[in-house]
Write a structure and sequence with these properties.
Shape of chain A: globular
Oligomer: heterodimer
Mean pLDDT of chain A: 79
Distance between the termini of chain A: 39 Å
Structural class of chain A: mainly alpha
Number of strands of chain B: 0
C-alpha cells in the first residue's frame, strides 16, 4: 500500500510541530491537566467530616485523628467515630489542608480563566477595531491605551474591589427579588446561586476590566499587518461589511496569537488575585483561593511553633501552576509567534 | 525639547485630574463612609460628621472644594488617623518607599542586563538555559512567597540579616532583593532576545568581517542598540516597583507608603487614598517622560520634536 501523500505544512501545523518538540511546554500541559482534574474530582473523594471544622486542630501532615462521622441524612447528628489521616495536615479549625488546597485550586483557576476571558473579549474587540479602521480612530484608541498604561493599575483594581463588593451583593439580591416577583424562576435561581460568590465576581470583573491593554496592543499590531493582505483587500473590494471581514477573515488568522497571550494572561491574573487575597482585598471566607489560604496560614504562624504545612502546600501549588502556565505560554509563543524565532 | 516638556506637564495635570475625579467618584458612590466602623449614629450626627470631613453637599461641590484645597497645596486631614495631615503622613513614609524602590530599580536594571547579556552570548549553553529557567521561575513566584522564603533562609536559618524593619542598610537587602527579583528576570529576558536579534544584523556581520573580537562587538556595537527595548521598559519597571512594594512592605514590615494605601482602602480614608494615588500617578508620568528623554540620547534616529 502506498504511503499517503504528506500533508502540506501550514504555518499553524508547523507551530504545533514546534510545540510538540518543546518538552518543558508539554510537561507543563500535562501538569496543568492533572491540577484541573484533581481540583475538579478531588474534593468529591474526600470524607465529608474532614472538610468541616473538627477537633483535630493543627494535625501535622500524615497525622491520624479520630473524628465524629456525620450522618449523611442529617449533618447535625453523628453516627459514631472514625480514624482518618490528614495527609497534608489540618488548619486552625481542624479542616483538611488537602481539601482546602484543592478547593482553593478551583477558585484560583476559575478566577484566572474567567478574568482572562473578560480580558480577551475586551482586548480583542478593542484591538480589532483600532487596527482595522486605522487612521484617526486607531490614533485616538491607542492614546487611550497609552494613558491607561501609565496608571497604577493594581491600585485601581483595589479601589474598584473595595468600592463595589458591597454594591454587587445588593445588586444581585435585588435582581433576585425582582425576578422572584415576576415568577422568572430560572433567573432567580441563577442569581441566588451567584450570591455567595459575589466577592469572586467583583475580583473577576475588576481584573478583567483593567488588564486587557496588552492584548489590545498585540491584536492591533497583528491586524495592521493582516489588513494589507490580499484576501482582505479582495473581501473589501467585493463590498463585504467591516464586521464580517473582521469575523471571517481577520479573527481566524489571529487565534494562535490570541491563544498565546491568553495563556500568558491567565498566570498574570492568578498572580494578581493571589496578591489581592493575600492583602485581604480579594477572595474572602468561607471561600478560599491559594492566596487567601496563604494569608490565613501566615496569620497563625508564630516563631515558637512552625505550622509550615499551612504555607508550604498552597505556596507550592500556586508556584508550580504559575510556572507551568508561563512555560506553556512561552512555548506557544515560540511556536506560533513568527517574530520570536530566528 | 521644551515644547515637549510643556506638553507632558499638561498631560500630567490632565491625568491627575482624571484619576482624582475617578477615585473620588468611585469611593463616594460606593456604599460605606469614612466613619463606617463607628457605632450607629443619628442622621443629624452623620450630617455633622460629613461637614467636619468636608464631605457634605452634592458630589460636584465636594470635589470642587477638594481641588481648591489641592491648588493651595493642602492635601487635607486623614479621616482615620485623627489630627494627622495627609501631607505629613506622606512626608514620613514616601522617602522609605523611594529608598526601597530605588535600590530595587538599580538591582533590576543592572542585574537584568548582566544576566541577559551572559545568556545571549552563551546562547543554547547551560548558562543560557539556567539563566532563562531562573528568570521564568522568578517571574512566576509571587513576592509574598519569595519574601518569607528569603526571611527563613537568610534571617532565621543563616542569621546573616535581620528579619524585617527599616533601620540599617542590612534591613534593606532582603526587601530590595525580593522586590527586584521578578524584574531582574523581565529585564534579562528582554535583554537576551533583543541582543540576539541585533547580533543577527548586517552591521554586526561587518564588524565581525573587520576582525573585531566577539566581546568587543557585543559590548561596543550590539549592546548600544540592543539596550533600547530595556530602556523603554524602565518606565513601566519603575511603576511596577512602586506598586509592587505594597506587598513587599507588608511582608518585611517596612514603614513605607504602601501600607497606607491598603489601610486607606479598608478604612475608606478618602483623602489619604487620594494623596497616595496622586503621588504614584505623578511619578509614573514623570518617569515615562524621563525614559523618553533617555531614549533620544541613546538613539539619535528618534527626534522627539518631530
Amino acid at each position: 500500500m502506498p504511503d499517503p501523500p504528506p500533508t502540506p505544512a501550514t504555518p499553524s501545523s508547523d507551530g504545533w510541530r514546534r510545540l510538540r518538540r518543546n518538552r518543558a511546554a508539554l510537561a507543563s500541559l500535562w501538569f496543568l491537566a492533572a491540577v484541573v482534574l484533581a481540583s475538579a474530582l478531588g474534593p468529591l473523594l474526600i470524607a465529608p467530616e474532614k472538610k468541616t471544622s473538627s477537633n483535630a486542630i493543627f494535625a501535622r501532615p500524615g497525622q491520624e485523628a479520630t473524628l465524629a462521622v456525620m450522618d449523611p441524612l442529617d449533618p447535625t447528628k453523628t453516627t459514631g467515630t472514625r480514624a482518618v489521616r490528614f495527609w497534608l495536615g489540618s488548619d486552625d479549625h481542624g479542616k483538611d489542608v488537602l481539601h482546602r488546597v484543592l478547593a482553593g485550586a478551583r477558585v484560583s483557576l476559575v478566577v484566572g480563566l474567567a478574568a482572562a476571558a473578560v480580558n480577551l473579549l475586551i482586548g480583542v474587540a478593542y484591538g480589532l477595531t483600532a487596527g482595522f479602521f486605522g487612521g484617526r480612530v486607531d490614533a485616538v484608541m491607542m492614546r487611550v491605551v497609552d494613558l491607561l498604561y501609565a496608571l497604577p493599575r493594581i491600585l485601581i483594581i483595589m479601589v474598584l474591589i473595595s468600592a463595589y463588593s458591597d454594591s454587587l451583593i445588593s445588586l444581585l439580591d435585588s435582581g433576585r427579588l425582582w425576578a422572584q416577583a415576576r415568577g422568572w424562576t430560572g433567573l432567580e435561581g441563577v442569581l441566588g446561586l451567584l450570591l455567595p460568590y459575589n466577592r469572586m465576581l467583583v475580583v473577576i470583573l475588576s481584573l478583567g476590566l483593567i488588564e486587557w491593554l496588552t492584548m489590545a496592543r498585540i491584536v492591533r499590531g497583528q491586524v495592521l499587518v493582516l489588513r494589507e493582505a490580499q484576501f482582505v483587500t479582495a473581501a473589501r473590494a467585493m463590498g463585504q461589511r467591516a464586521w464580517k471581514i473582521m469575523a471571517r477573515h481577520l479573527l481566524p488568522n489571529l487565534w494562535t496569537v490570541i491563544l498565546t497571550y491568553l495563556t500568558l494572561t491567565i498566570p498574570a491574573v492568578i498572580l494578581t488575585e493571589s496578591f489581592l487575597s493575600f492583602l485581604g482585598l480579594g477572595i474572602d471566607e468561607p471561600a478560599a483561593s491559594w492566596g487567601s489560604l496563604l494569608k490565613q496560614g501566615a496569620q497563625v504562624i508564630n516563631p515558637l511553633e512552625s505550622r509550615w504545612w499551612l504555607l508550604v502546600f498552597p505556596a507550592a501549588m500556586l508556584s508550580a501552576t504559575l510556572l507551568a502556565l508561563n512555560f506553556l505560554g512561552d512555548g506557544l509563543r515560540d511556536a506560533f509567534d513568527p517574530r520570536s524565532h530566528e | 525639547m521644551l515644547a515637549r516638556l510643556a506638553r507632558r506637564l499638561v498631560s500630567l495635570a490632565a491625568v491627575l485630574v482624571g484619576v482624582i475625579t475617578l477615585t473620588f467618584a468611585l469611593l463616594r458612590a460606593a456604599p460605606g463612609d469614612p466613619f463606617i466602623g463607628e457605632k450607629s449614629l443619628t442622621p443629624a450626627q452623620i450630617e455633622e460628621k460629613k461637614r467636619q470631613l468636608k464631605l457634605d453637599g452634592p458630589l460636584g461641590s465636594q470635589m470642587a472644594r477638594y481641588f481648591a484645597d489641592l491648588a493651595r497645596g493642602d492635601l487635607r486631614e486623614s479621616s482615620k488617623y485623627k489630627g494627622q495631615q495627609v501631607g505629613e503622613i506622606l512626608r514620613h513614609s514616601l522617602p522609605v518607599s523611594f529608598q526601597l524602590g530605588a535600590l530595587a530599580f538599580v538591582l533590576a536594571a543592572a542585574g537584568g542586563v548582566t544576566l541577559g547579556v551572559i545568556a545571549a552570548l552563551g546562547r543554547n549553553t547551560w548558562a543560557d538555559y539556567a539563566a532563562m529557567f531562573a528568570a521564568l521561575a522568578a517571574i512566576s513566584l509571587p513576592s509574598f512567597i519569595t519574601g518569607p522564603v528569603l526571611i527563613a533562609v537568610f534571617a532565621l536559618w543563616l542569621g546573616w540579616l535581620p528579619v524585617g524593619g527599616w533601620f540599617s542598610w542590612q534591613t534593606m537587602i532582603l526587601p530590595a532583593l525580593c522586590l527586584a527579583a521578578p524584574y531582574v528576570a523581565y529585564v534579562a529576558r528582554l535583554m537576551r532576545n533583543s541582543l540576539l536579534e541585533v547580533l543577527n544584523q548586517d552591521f554586526i556581520r561587518t564588524a565581525r568581517a573587520k576582525g573585531l573580537a566577539p566581546r568587543a562587538i557585543a559590548v561596543r556595537h550590539a549592546l548600544r542598540v540592543a539596550i533600547l527595548p530595556v530602556v523603554t521598559f524602565l518606565g513601566p519597571l519603575a511603576a511596577n516597583l512602586l506598586t509592587g512594594s505594597v506587598v513587599v512592605e507588608a511582608v518585611f514590615g517596612v514603614p513605607g507608603a504602601g501600607q497606607y494605601f491598603v489601610r486607606a482602602i479598608e478604612n475608606r480614608d478618602l483623602f489619604l487614598l487620594l494623596g497616595v494615588v496622586m503621588v504614584y500617578c505623578s511619578l509614573l508620568v514623570a518617569l515615562n517622560f524621563l525614559v523618553d528623554v533617555a531614549y533620544t540620547f541613546l538613539d539619535r534616529r528618534i527626534k522627539l520634536d518631530a
